[in-house]
Amino acid sequence: MKILRASDYKRMPWKNGGGETVEIAVFPAGASIEDFDWRISTATVASDGPFSIFPGVDRTLSILSGAGIELTIDTSEPLILDLDSEPYPFPSDKPVLARLVNGVVTDLNVMTRRSRFSHRVSRQPAPFLLSPSASLRFVLATGNHTIAFGSEAAELGPLDCLALEGEATSDLVISGGTGVFLIELDPDGGDNLR
C-alpha cells in the first residue's frame, strides 16, 4: 500500500497541446503519453474543443468538479457528464468533441492500452469497505478521508490517491464525508472494460 500525494503529481501538456494533464500514476514507470500501458490522470478543461486521440487505448472519464461537459463521440448523439454521472468508458481512438456545460471542469481520466490491460472505474460512497483483490487498485479521494487497516490508519486529502499494488491481506475501511473513485486494473486484455 502506498499513498500518492496530489502535491507530487507530474504536470504536462495535453497530447494535442490544448491544456494540461496532471499524471497520478503510469505504467511502465516513466512512460510517456505515447507509450504507456496504463495511465491515471486528471485534467482541467477550460474551453471547448477536441480530445486527444490515443490509438488502441480505452478511456474512462469522470467529472471531479464543475457543471459538466458534453461529449460527442464519433457519430454518436451528444451526452452530458456531470458530478452525478457514473464514470463513462469509451474508445480513445475515436474522435471526441467536448463542449463545456457552464464553465471549467476537472475530470479524472483512466486509460489502458488494449491487449495489455483493462480497467474498471466506479464511484464508491464513504464509508467504503475494500476487500482483498488480485487487481491492481487505486482509490482517488474527493475530499478528506481516513484509511483504516487493522490497528493502523492513514489520511488522504483531496485528490490524494491510495495505491494497492499487491493483493491486500485484509480489508481496508475508507471513511470521510464524500465518496471516492475506485480504479481497478487487470493485465488480461481489453475485452472486459466496463
From TrEMBL:
**What is the originating organism of this protein?**
Neorhizobium galegae bv. orientalis str. HAMBI 540
Question: What does the UniProt keyword field contain?
Answer: Plasmid
Among PANTHER family, the record links this protein to: PROTEIN VES (PTHR37943:SF1)
Protein name per its UniProtKB record: HutD-family protein
Gene3D superfamilies of this UniProt entry?
Answer: Jelly Rolls
